[in-house]
Design goal:
The complex is a heterodimer of chains A (264) and B (98). Chain A is α+β, with helices and mostly antiparallel strands. Chain A has two domains: 34-178, Cytochrome C3; 180-264, Cytochrome C3. Chain A is built from eight helices and seven strands, in the order αββαααββααββααβ. Chain A has a three-stranded antiparallel sheet with strand order 5-6-7, with no helix packed on it. Chain A has a two-stranded antiparallel sheet with strand order 1-2. Chain A has a two-stranded antiparallel sheet with strand order 3-4. Chain B has one domain (25-93). Chain B starts with a helix and ends in a 5-residue tail after the last helix. Chain B is mainly α. Chain B has three helices and no strands. The chains are: A alpha+beta (264), B mainly alpha (98).
Chain lengths: 264, 98
């Protein structure tokens, strides 16, 4: 009897393992579902591990609540893909990249005051991968005040700006140019391949307000409108709209945000 | 001996001034070229071509004389240069207005 029970338990464990393996091989790598405060986090590890320090965890939500995308991705010079900028500690200390703001004046610098009034390094505020570092900005406290959304950070960032819940800085002294407002671009519609899907209404105005022109053109969208079809497959792979949507901006599973114009 | 020291000092001063002056010049050019991307839509084909040519020349200058911030300014300049080139090709593809 005991042997039978043991045999059943072993069989059950083996079957569970087999099902998991089959599932894993069918789905490939299944991404862990990100919690709202994690959505938009970028891990940067060009040089950290090689220098025996944890990788950087960059929380997009803290920064997008304060700055337009253009300030960081054009004026300060951050590439659109994690790890492409290859920022070094020396760059930051020279006032470039993260060091543009993280200099102890605009935001915290590489050292902070200690108990005795001196200064101690605070590397782990950024180099926090796999460390239990308590962030000074509490996401859920911040989220309470914001208009809600269904996915991503569960914050409707557009509405948050319209309602003056966030005021985005688009200019940094000594770094940015004084810019005149961009000539208003009209919304236009894109026809989806799947005829039953509502048309996509693209708002140039909304995108240009935060990105400017050169963030998208030509690196993300380099051809004449309508001459190249974008597939959802490519978008989910991080091309075109997927460069931002699914990483920082609202995710692509929120279909109704883009497919808004009824076909009936 | 003193004369040699004075000449050496003046030569060093001249070299330093030239280098700093060159850096100041390319930064001014950079700001002039890349500070107007919001007007690209209203620029003529000739203006856009001119901007792209100047940006290409400035890229070479920064490659040589960019200093510590070379990496950053090359990135920014390529972004704005490529954008102007994109606007140029978009305008060239537009049907001619009658």
């Amino acid at each position: 009897m005991k042997k039978k029970c043991l045999g059943m338990v072993v069989l059950l464990i083996l079957m569970t393992l087999l099902v998991s393996l089959v599932e894993a091989s069918m789905d490939g790598v299944r991404r862990k579902k990100q919690r709202p405060h994690e959505y938009g986090n970028v891990f940067i590890n060009n040089f950290s591990e090689k220098n025996n320090i944890e990788a950087v965890v960059f929380p997009h939500w803290v920064h997008r609540a304060r700055f337009t995308c253009r300030v960081c991705h054009i004026d300060i010079g951050f590439a659109m893909r994690a790890g492409e900028t290859k920022t070094k500690e020396g760059d930051n200390l020279n006032g470039m990249y993260c060091g543009t703001c993280h200099n102890g004046k605009i935001s915290f610098g590489p050292k902070e005051k200690d108990f005795f009034g001196g200064k101690k390094p605070n590397c782990e505020r950024c180099h926090s991968y796999n460390k239990d570092v308590k962030m000074k900005n509490d996401f859920y406290e911040f989220q309470k005040e914001m208009p809600r959304d269904r996915f991503g950070n569960r914050i409707d960032w557009l509405k948050a700006e319209e309602n003056n819940k966030v005021k985005l800085v688009d200019y940094i002294e000594g770094v940015s140019f004084e810019r005149k407002p961009i000539k208003l671009q009209r919304d236009f519609s894109l026809n989806p391949k799947v005829v039953e899907m509502p048309e996509i209404i693209f708002s140039h105005e909304k995108h240009a307000k935060w990105n400017g022109c050169e963030l998208c053109h030509p690196d993300l969208f380099g051809v004449k409108r309508g001459s190249q079809p974008y597939s959802m497959q490519e978008i989910f792979q991080g091309k075109y709209c997927g460069a931002c949507h699914d990483l920082v901006a609202f995710p692509n599973i929120d279909c109704q945000k883009c497919h808004t114009k009824s076909v009936y | 001996m003193r004369v040699k020291m004075v000449i050496g000092f003046l030569a060093a001063l001249l070299f330093f001034a030239t280098t700093v002056g060159a850096a100041a010049t390319w930064r001014e050019d950079f700001e002039r070229l890349c500070g107007t991307t919001e007007r690209a839509d209203s620029m003529s084909l000739e203006e856009l071509k001119q901007v792209v040519v100047e940006a290409d020349q400035l890229l070479e200058t920064i490659e040589k004389d960019g200093g510590e911030q070379k990496k950053l300014y090359l990135f920014r300049l390529r972004k704005c240069r490529d954008f102007f080139a994109y606007m140029l090709s978009a305008k060239e593809m537009e049907p001619a207005k009658e």
